[in-house]
Amino acid sequence: MMVFSKCFRGVHPHRFVHAFRRAGIHIRSRHLNSDSKSPDCHVLNELIMEWDFNNPPKIPMVLQSDSLDPYSNLAFEDWLSSCIEFLSGRPVMMLWRNRATVVVGRNQNVWKECDLHTLKQKKIIIARRKSGGGTVFHDEGNLNITFYNARELHDKNRNSRMIKDALLEAVKSLPVSINDRNDVLLAGKKISGSAYKLDRLVAYHHCTLLVNTDLQLLEGALHPTMTGIESKGIASVKSPVQNISEHTRIDLDLLHHTLASSFVQQYSENARGSNVHLVRVDPDALVRQSSLLASMRATMASWEWIFAGGPVFSYAAPLQLRRSTLAPAGHAHRASGTLNFRVKKGYIDSVALGGATADMVLTAQLSSALVGVAFFKDHMVAALNAATSLDDHTKDSVIASLECIY
């Protein structure tokens, strides 16, 4: 049995199902095939039962994740989007936080969007989400909010207004506004940005809310130092940001409940004046208990999804050849040019030389050594050192040109 709160331990869900049916509350469920995204029907039943047990019937649902693991949270978030059709179309909001993580959009280039060297040095996790949009930074001082609804009822402006209203409910004097990009601003600076995933029947809208984020860490992580990348992926739009805490002290638990009340009242007349009881869920525990969620988390954490899941791109590295291969016999030569890579699904797809370093023989040798190698410096250096067709001077020159590559 999946556990969502202490009060449900040891209590079989069917007892509540019968009680709710006698009370006229219908819990909709159906058999799920093994290839469905939903791991177990009783997982959904328990969510609905705990929510309806503590709140007025048939009002929108609010979940709060107890996990700080970005891969578990992202897997659960995406799994939940496939469950909306089993919840009789009721809107759902999920509140969640992660430990320090950079999350790139579905169609973004990891190498172009963040400083991978800083991420490694500061032990910041890198992740890719299923929705589009730009790269964001999460930590425990940032609150993530995900809104789920049927596709035809999806209203991003309404959701952002709800956040604004909740903030004003918590602190009435806050100078909060919404811009034409649907960002929530505080005194003209961004405190919340959004991204969206629209499926045929279901839509979800998720956003950040900077409460007390480490902005110095955010700036370092989202300041890429690797130039020379050309990519068709979506580029992030940089905006000045600030924390809510720079204007007022706000209790996170109070903010959770204010957001929950604002959401439920926004989408249900039945909830007017009601106290909303959040359902706490532990995606880490669900991952351990569900093979499907474990598989979804493993995908979210995989190299293939995070790095190879981005668009095709090219990278030009400055190259200086300190050797005589390109010069007439007996003459030393120093050639300046570029070492050009095409990268597809995280692997080097082609290699070319540009400028004064252009040479068909050397291009063929480098291609033989590097095509098919993962676009990481350590992998490339190992492949170059293992290449018997290249002399040591050429290897050193090419390795020196890879200095900026992660």
Write the layout of secondary structure elements.
Blueprint: H1 13-22, H2 41-54, E1 61-65, H3 70-81, E2 92-96, E3 101-104, H4 110-113, H5 116-122, E4 125-128, E5 136-138, E6 142-150, H6 156-170, E7 176-178, E8 184-186, E9 189-192, E10 194-198, E11 202-210, H7 215-221, E12 229-231, H8 252-267, E13 279-281, H9 283-289, H10 291-300, H11 303-306, E14 313-322, E15 334-344, E16 347-355, H12 360-370, H13 377-386, H14 392-401
Parallel strand pairs: 1-2, 1-13, 3-4
Antiparallel strand pairs: 2-6, 3-5, 6-11, 7-8, 8-9, 10-11, 12-14, 14-15, 15-16
Helix pairs in contact: 1-2, 3-10, 6-8, 9-10, 13-14
Q: Which terms would index this structure?
A:
six-stranded mixed β-sheet; alpha+beta; 406 residues; elongated
Structural commentary:
The protein is an alpha+beta fold. Helices cover 34% and strands 22% of the residues. Strands 10-11-6-2-1-13 form a 6-stranded mixed β-sheet, with helices on both faces. A 4-stranded antiparallel β-sheet has the order 12-14-15-16, covered by helices on one side. Helix 1 (13-22) crosses helix 2 (41-54) and helix 6 crosses helix 8. The longest helix is centred in the middle third of the chain and has 16 residues, at 252-267.
Give helix % range. Answer: 25-40%
Distance between the termini: 44 Å
| Strand order within the widest beta sheet | 10-11-6-2-1-13
Major β-sheet annotation: 6 strands, mixed
Mean pLDDT: 84
Strand content: 15-25%
Shape: elongated
- In N-to-C order, the SSE pattern is HHEHEEHHEEEHEEEEEHEHEHHHEEEHHH
- Say how many strands there are: 16
Helix- and strand-based class?
alpha+beta
Radius of gyration: 26 Å
Low-confidence runs of at least 5 consecutive residues: 1-39
Number of helices: 14
